[in-house]
Amino acid sequence: MTNFRLCVPLFLIVIVSQVRAQHFALSRLFYPNATLRADFMADANMGNNQRYGLSRTSFNALIPLRSEVDVSFNLRKKFDLRARHFLMLANASQINPTLNGTIDPASYKTISVGALMLQASLRDRLWIYGGGLGLTESNETFFIPQPFFWGGAARMRILGLHTQIAYGTVLIFNQKLRLIPVFGINKRLGKEWRVSALLPFRADVNYKVNQWFNIDMIGAFDGYSGGFQEVTIVEKSLHRSNYQHVKFSVAANAHLLGVFNVSLEAGLGTFRQLRTFNSARENLGTQNPGIAPFIGASVRYISSKSKLSSQFTKKLGLGESGVNW
Length: 325
Prior knowledge:
mainly beta, Porin, 14-stranded antiparallel beta barrel, 2 helices, 66% strand, disordered C terminus
């Protein structure tokens, strides 16, 4: 019992230590919250007298569903105490590429839902499991959706009160199947600095100015993938588009009125590639738009700590986590 009681509060510290930051983290998984975000990337030359730009608006929500604690015995009469926390993820977004300043007909809508389970036990320590599915659909081909799904698991290890790592594997299908190993780290450096990363997707250095304001320096791999239908005089043909870039940015985050996080982000998108495939997945063309500046803004509403999360900790006799909203 002693090891488990040490394990869970440390895990909760990992989760809630960054609730005021607007950057990625496991920080918000115990708090119902919703985010509205808008991004705009300026037009940049990509050859053939064409310029490519991009704008995106999105809505994201995290909703805790259930927390539970159970006791079990195996055939060897070994005791195990297990705690689980379940939550749902939802996303809806609109992606608008632009060609020569005009919105591309192959703009995309995306909707997705998923679930995460956080599990802590005496025998297995800390695990995170997740999965989800969704649809990407072009504005021009509303009845030809492109499905995608993901699933994975990660093991988390506590190396100290200020250092945690996670490692695992994610299986993703989006036009083709990929198996991606992931590695995460959360390291506090002094009272003001924190380094977080979920590789190969994102890395973040956070500087806490005070209780309500912090700054992030971010490097991230991002993009979109979807299908659209090209209509000519001769035929209608289904094409698939895949865009990716690496971005470097700085974000300023303010925690306001106890329930809102407001973030402004600016940076550069580089290492960009835009590829188009036909329905047989044959490459029709690859283009490389130049480096372009981008800006983004988001507002996140974070409710008070959920009753589910409070019950989760009280069942273990741990009390509250001590986060002061």
